Amino acid sequence: MTIFLTGASGQLGTELNSALTDSHSIVSSDVLPPRHRVQRFHSLNLGDEKAVTGLLNEVKPRVIVNAAAYTQVDKAESESDLAFQINASAPALLAGWARENNAFLLHYSTDYVFDGHSDRPYLESDKPSPLNAYGESKLGGEQAILSSGCDHVILRTSWIYSSHGNNFLRTMLRLASERSHLNVVDDQFGCPTWARNLAQVSAVVIEAMTGAGQGPNHTRPDSGLYHYSDGPPCTWCDFARVIFEAAVTRGILARAPQVDGVTSDQFQTAATRPRNSVLDTSKISRVFRIEPAELRPSLSDCLEDLSIDD
After folding, report:
1. What is the DSSP secondary-structure string of 160-229?
2. Continuous segment of H or E residues that includes residue 246
3. DSSP-derived pairing of the beta strands 104-110 and 151-157
4. Which domain holds residue 82?
5. Exposed/middle/buried for residue 58 (C-beta within 10 Å: 0-12, 13-18, 19+)
6. What digits encode the pLDDT tens for the residues 185-228?
7. 178 within some domain
8. What CA dihedral angle connects 45, 46, 50 and 53, to 10 degrees?
9. Within a domain: 170
10. Residues annotated as catalytic (active site), given as ranges
11. CB within 10 Å: which end of the chain, N or C, has fewer?
């Protein structure tokens, strides 16, 4: 089965290549080529509709996996046009092609489509109300896909980290090597999610939705929105402390810095973040029999292949 993968050079795209290559033919794309080896790579700007359509017509994939996204949350406040182009317009184009060519689209969205005012984990049925331009652009992508009529799954996830690229884990390790004391936000709750776990979940979803490797009595799940994140919930401050504990245990850090929690008001950013962006994962557990991975063992495994030079 041919899979067309966007965002192949990113955190998730890197893991998706590894998770999907053994079972499928992967055609990868991104603006810049990935550092890891891929089967077939095409340099592609998702803002170029003609180029995107032309490549899709050439590849004729059975599955499109859209791991590309504009993810600079604060910068999106001043670059909202670009954020909407990549996070809303491009998914709409991919969904339209998927509908017209009977392909399946797997797309990723974010916990930031919610305002964080809920006192419980968010369900797929809860009404989105993003607080920032990034969340608005990702919601636009969701709405375009849901209204397209294409065969799809949208996976909302949260707080992605990996051993490569730019993310909270690597930032904390860099700061810990430079400072003995750190202030980290302690009033925003979410679920850090290892990109490799999300890639493995994606492989299960693709097989279930396409029937790949399934028996004759396979019941196909419905298209729609699903939530996946690792667990349990924590704050950014909690996450930082777990990172340092694991890094010291593995010998990556000689000692952990002192970590003090601060409020969001004390740590001003251009974009407002939701105070609670914990996602309820009971639906994906019920439909796909996927259970959330645990933070501590996932983080430990992630640190095993950490490359600071990346």
Report:
1. EE-SSSS-HHHHHHHHHHH-SEEEEE-S-EE--EEHHHHHHHHHHHHHHHH-TT--TTPPPPPSEEEE--
2. helix 236-249
3. parallel
4. 2-163+194-230+277-294
5. exposed
6. 999 999 999 999 999 999 999 999 998 656 666 678 989 999 99
7. no
8. 120
9. no
10. 134
11. C
Q: Dihedrals φ, ψ of 289, to 5°?
A: 60, 40
Mean pLDDT of the 156-176 span: 94
Domain count, the chain: 1
- What residue type is assigned to position 180 of the chain? S
Residue at 172 is within a domain: no
Number of other CB atoms surrounding residue 194 within 10 Å: 25
Q: How far is the C-alpha of 154 from the C-alpha of 281, rounded, in Å?
A: 13
- 264 class by beta-carbon count within 10 Å (0-12 exposed, 13-18 middle, 19+ buried): middle
Collapse the DSSP code of 122 into the 3-class scheme (helix H, G, I; strand E, B; otherwise coil) and give the result: strand
* Distance of alpha carbon 238 from alpha carbon 189, whole angstroms: 9
Residue with tokens 């996946």: 228
Please report which confidence band the pLDDT of residue 35 belongs to, taking 50, 70 and 90 as the band edges.
confident
In the block, which residue shows the tokens 């996830």?
A: 157
Quick check: bond before 232 cis, omega within 30?
yes
Q: How far apart are CA 296 and CA 245, in angstroms?
A: 10
Instruction: Tell me how far CA of residue 183 lies from CA of 71, 180, 186, 260, 266, in angstroms.
Output: 23, 11, 9, 5, 10
Task: Note whether residue 127 is domain-resident.
Answer: yes
E strand or H helix at 66, and its extent? strand 63-66
* pLDDT > 60? residue 134: yes
Has residue 309 got a pLDDT over 50?
Answer: no
Contact between 9 and 44 under an 8 Å Cβ cutoff? The reply is no
How many angstroms separate the CA atoms of 99 and 148, rounded?
7
- ∠ Cα 44 209 285 (to 5°): 110
**What is the pTM (predicted TM-score) of this model?**
0.93
CA dist 296 and 160 (Å) reads 14
